[in-house]
Design brief:
heterotrimer; A mainly alpha (about 230); B alpha+beta (about 375); C alpha/beta (about 280); A: about 230 residues; mainly alpha; MetI-like fold; 11 helices; about 75% helix; globular; B: Rossmann fold; 2 domains; six-stranded mixed beta sheet; 10 helices
């Protein structure tokens, strides 16, 4: 128990003294996961929309594939991405293994199906005739998308939170494709694993607390936006 | 198939078919909607009314045929986009956005890029017109059924459509809300001379609002005509069964008494109960079960105020009894049991006396 | 249908955006490829903190960027065999020899050594305190069926441990008192401390955690407990993409005077004794 208290103390200390290493680790976590979530948002919402609103052969199969993708184990994603990015692998010529970019790619693969799946469900949940109503009001396709996104903003914001939460807290893919290189690809989760394996439990707990605080703050902001102007 | 002959066609459908799973959901060789008229599509559930509405509004892909607006075919995405900016549609569910009433009504105007000042003005007007001005700032989630549908209508009329499609707009409302809204809509349609296509399964609503009635069964239009034509002279048994063959008569109020009045229909006076003014246009509906037929009662000896002589035009069987079409100077339909038919020896051409109480006349003010 | 058109257009747009992004970053990455060295090393080496001092020195001196990937010795050499690393810094001599024999390495040089110690609870149920021979201590542990924690992860430490078990002649595999954690050194020590068991640890990691553990050094100094580190450059003949210049520069650096001095002095301030002993140029 006192280990946890020690950890909290350490966390506060590291933050207040703006320990440069902890700062860089934290900022990198935010940058990588933030970028991955953003890309997943664009991909996920646009594709999710298109899939939800179009009728095509094999639609159910595509949707079930997306839903399966929501539960992809991050470490498996990391393994496959690293195999692809190995020097002697198919995309080795890009030379991006053990870089933050590789981490963004892996995390996007993890988060995109999540955002996509929730978007599909959210759009399908809207009243059937709503699209016709919007079109009958003279809206262009883009205007319709904007209006539908506004109507589905509650589940869509939940999708963003789910996607972000999933990737900022994952460690398997980050270690495999990032390599946990000091000052370059080390993020909060990989640093926590490393410090734990070293036996530096206080630092590990401190990093864990910082990660929790980060998640909480970001989700609090998003929840506020989500729940705003809902006079009940 | 019946079709309306006219020259002032605003919207025309030619040979349109929509398929689902290889089967035609709607198959309409021809349909013409005239400028400034209100046409109602009536028919049972599943007859294809909603599909036809969506097709006429270019919201559904047609597998065959095309629609013409102002004589121009709507066959390209550009034509569709332009057409959609000139129409409006209201559905059975209000389908309001998660915003205030004001923002909802302004949606169509915002989409058309109108300036905020103009939007404010137009929205205020529409809210006032539909009697929801006091709800402008209220969230759409906190409206009653009637208020929500009024908002949906205000949103549709705000864009000043050339043609408006209403798909069972009052079906989800409770009777009082429905009645007041039907009245308001009738007045507004008259005022703005907006062409309208209304789908409904409520005969009274159709009667109240429309100039033309089109009856749909299994995806095709089986009869078109004025409400009286369709109700009194249904084209076949199917239509007859659906419209309920009430006798429908239009006339002018000739005299008023205390609580009752006499209406002049085709030169004859009918007595009915109601509060009307002299000279008012009314429609009288008489349920066939309330009409009694006899072959010998002379005028003056019955308790029914309305007693007329007439000739049997047609008799058709209807399960447990028969439907008898009479010509008493105006069309009248009565039900007669098999027994009575035999006893009275009724056949085509027989002269009979038909009577019904003043209270049997259901009055609709036009 | 209109939606399908929209969907395909949007798909193409996003795909284009993404690939141009990746292409852009990759292009800049590719140019930097020759500046990057992938160094595969072990977790215990990284955990000691020695590399945190040496690598920056090397990078500043040569301008190369070193990507230190800390995995088990087994995985490090597997990476070398596949050409996915340029240089290896490991401490598993038997496996290293096989690596060189199979022609995967172009050079192998001794860098430093430290030693392993057998630690356990102060109560010492197997009575190994003072025993000079490590295999004999292991034999005692087996005979008394005392709890023993193994890393079980093909790391250099694990390889050393297996060698000592072999020398002791005692059977340990599958025994109830022999538990494999599959974890790093620090964690394995933690588990041993919790369960009051024995384990084999490198002195460096033990020292840094000593205060929190409550375990004592019960057997040390035996020759079989020596832990020798070598640096190997991966052979470009098998894998042409290997950064030969970088690997050579790194290997040369590790045996250079500068690096060796750093190694000699590392840990003295913190623990009162050095964690490693420089061995460059010495006979095995």
């Amino acid at each position: 128990m006192d280990l946890i208290v020690e950890g909290i103390w350490k966390a506060l200390l590291l933050l207040f003294t703006l320990d440069p290493e902890v700062l860089s680790i934290t900022l990198l976590s935010l940058a990588v996961s933030g970028a991955a979530t953003l890309i997943s948002l664009v991909l996920g919402v646009s594709l999710g929309f298109a899939i939800a609103l179009t009728e095509f052969r094999g639609k159910k199969f595509v949707i079930s594939t997306i839903n399966t993708g929501m539960g992809l184990p991050p470490v498996v994603v990391g393994l496959f991405v690293s195999i692809f990015l190995w020097r002697n692998g198919p995309f080795g010529f890009l030379g991006i293994l053990y870089t933050p970019l590789a981490m963004v790619i892996a995390q996007t693969i993890i988060a995109a199906p999540l955002v996509m799946g929730i978007t599909v469900a959210a759009i399908q949940h809207l009243p059937r005739n709503l699209r016709y109503q919007i079109l009958a009001l003279g809206a262009t396709r883009l205007q319709m998308m904007r209006l539908l996104v506004r109507e589905a903003r509650l589940p869509l914001l939940a999708a963003v939170m789910a996607g972000f939460g999933g990737v900022i807290s994952e460690v398997g893919a980050s270690i495999m494709v990032g390599g946990n290189i000091k000052g370059y690809t080390r993020v909060l989760t990989t640093a926590t694993v490393m410090e734990t394996s070293r036996g530096n439990f206080d630092i590990a707990i401190a990093l864990g607390i910082i990660l929790l605080a980060l998640c909480f703050i970001i989700n609090a902001v998003l929840t506020y936006v989500q729940q705003r102007e809902r006079p009940r | 198939m019946n079709s309306i002959q006219s020259s002032a066609g605003l919207l025309e459908a030619r040979g349109i078919k929509v398929l689902r799973g290889g089967f035609p959901v709607i198959d309409i060789p021809t349909l013409l909607v005239e400028h400034g008229r209100v046409i109602s599509l009536i028919g049972p559930n599943g007859s294809g009314k909603s599909t036809l509405m969506l097709a006429l509004a270019s919201l559904l892909k047609l597998h065959q045929g095309s629609i013409f607006f102002h004589g121009q075919p709507i066959d390209s995405s550009a034509a569709r986009a332009a057409y959609r900016k000139k129409l409006a549609m209201v559905f059975q569910e209000p389908l309001l956005f998660d915003a205030t009433v004001f923002e909802n009504v302004a949606t169509g105007l915002k989409i058309r890029g109108m300036k905020q000042q103009e939007i404010d003005q137009t929205v205020e007007e529409q809210l006032a017109r539909f009697g929801i001005g006091h709800l402008a700032r209220r969230s759409a989630r906190k409206l009653s059924g009637g208020e929500a549908q009024r908002t949906s209508l205000a949103r549709a009329f705000a864009i000043r459509p050339e043609i408006i499609f209403l798909d069972e707009p009052f079906a989800s409302l409770d009777p009082p809300s429905r009645d007041s809204l039907v009245d308001d809509l009738h007045a507004i349609l008259r005022q703005t001379r907006t062409t309208a296509v209304i789908a409904t399964h409520d005969r009274m609503e159709a009667l109240r609002l429309s100039d033309i009635l089109a009856v749909m069964f299994a995806g095709t239009i089986v009869q078109t005509g004025t409400p009286e034509e369709v109700m009194n002279r249904p084209a076949d048994e199917q239509v007859a069964a659906f419209v309920g063959t009430e006798t429908i008569l239009s006339g002018t109020v000739a005299k008023t008494y205390d609580g009752t009045f006499a209406v002049c229909i085709a030169g004859t006076l009918l007595e009915a109960v109601g509060e009307v003014k002299k000279g008012e246009e009314v429609v009288c509906c008489i349920r066939p079960e309330l009409v009694t037929i006899s072959t010998d009662t002379p005028i003056g000896h019955s308790s029914a105020r309305n007693t007329f002589t007439g000739t049997i035009v047609k008799i058709s069987p209807l399960g447990l009894f028969y439907r008898v079409y009479l010509d008493c100077g105006f069309p009248l339909v009565a039900y007669v049991t098999t027994q009575s038919l035999k006893n009275l020896g009724l056949k085509d051409g027989t002269r009979v006396t038909a009577s019904f109480k003043a209270t049997a006349v259901h009055v609709i003010k036009k | 249908m209109k939606h399908a058109q929209f969907m395909t257009r949007l798909c193409c747009l996003t795909a284009l955006l993404c690939s141009s992004m990746i292409g852009g970053m990759a292009a800049s990455g590719h140019a930097a490829d020759q500046k990057n060295i992938i160094l595969a090393t072990t977790t215990s080496t990284q955990d000691s903190g020695l590399l945190d001092v040496l690598i920056p020195l090397f990078e500043k001196k040569t301008g190369f960027m070193v990507k230190t990937i800390a995995v088990g010795s087994g995985q490090a050499m597997a990476m070398g065999e596949r050409g996915e690393a340029d240089a290896l810094l490991v401490h598993s001599p038997d496996a290293e020899k096989k690596f060189m024999e199979k022609g995967f390495g172009s050079s192998r040089m001794i860098v430093m050594h430290n030693d392993f110690v057998i630690v356990g609870p102060a109560a010492d149920p197997a009575k190994i305190k003072g025993v000079k021979s490590a295999p004999e201590a292991f034999k005692n542990i087996a005979e008394t069926q005392s709890l023993f924690m193994s890393r079980g992860d093909n790391s250099g430490t694990h390889a050393k441990e297996k060698a000592i078990w072999k020398a002791s002649g005692a059977a340990c595999a599958g025994q109830k008192w022999y538990q494999e954690t599959g974890l790093g050194m620090g964690q394995t020590l933690g588990v041993a401390a919790e369960k009051k068991g024995y384990t084999l640890a490198d002195r460096g990691t033990y020292l840094s955690l000593k205060n929190k553990l409550g375990l004592e050094i019960l057997c040390e100094g035996d020759k079989s407990l020596l832990n020798v580190y070598h640096v190997m450059a991966v052979n470009p003949d098998k894998w042409p993409k290997v950064n030969t210049a970088g690997a050579k520069a790194f290997a040369d650096f590790m045996v250079s005077q500068q690096a060796q001095t750093v190694i000699k002095e590392f840990g003295v301030e913190r623990f009162g004794q050095p964690l490693f002993f420089p061995d460059a140029g010495k006979k095995e």
